[in-house]
Amino acid sequence: MKKTNVWGLLCLLLVSAFSFVSCSDDEGGIEDAGLIYGVWEPVRAQGYEVIDGDRSEWDYDVDEINEDEYIEADYNRFGFYDDGTCTSWWYTGSGRWEVEYSGIDFSLDGNRLYIGRDYCMVLTLNSTTLVMEIHEVESDYEYYEKVTFRRVE
User: Fold this and answer.
1) Per-residue confidence (pLDDT) for residue 90, from 0 to 100
2) H or E element, residue 124
3) What SS3 class is residue 133?
4) Buried b / exposed e across 6-38, counting CB within 10 Å, b at 16+?
5) How many helices (H) and strands (E) does the chain have?
């Protein structure tokens, strides 16, 4: 079975002590920072991972891989609230989402979305779409991912 733990890595990193280095091409941009409030569900994930020179790439429709029994993926739903906290849900199958964590502080500073001590870059934020990107580089490892979300609440 192929194991792809791509969005789950972001969630793990959001509550860990890792630091991200990210670059953005600022496609789309942020129309209004207040649009972040609400619940966002992942719809597409694109990226790559390089481990010791071996590169693997992906471009997934998240709905399809969430139901694929041969690919394990952790793409989370996020809720951002006007009290400055967020909630993350992970997909358990058959259309069900379970809370992974809640009450974590977040803030949006320019196009950097801070969740706890970590951040990702917001490439697009409008009334229907949120696009976030993470990029981590170490001596023998590189990870990049861009995830597109749709507003569900």
Assistant:
1) 85
2) strand 118-125
3) strand
4) bbbbbbebbeeeeebebebeeeeebeeeebbeb
5) 2, 12
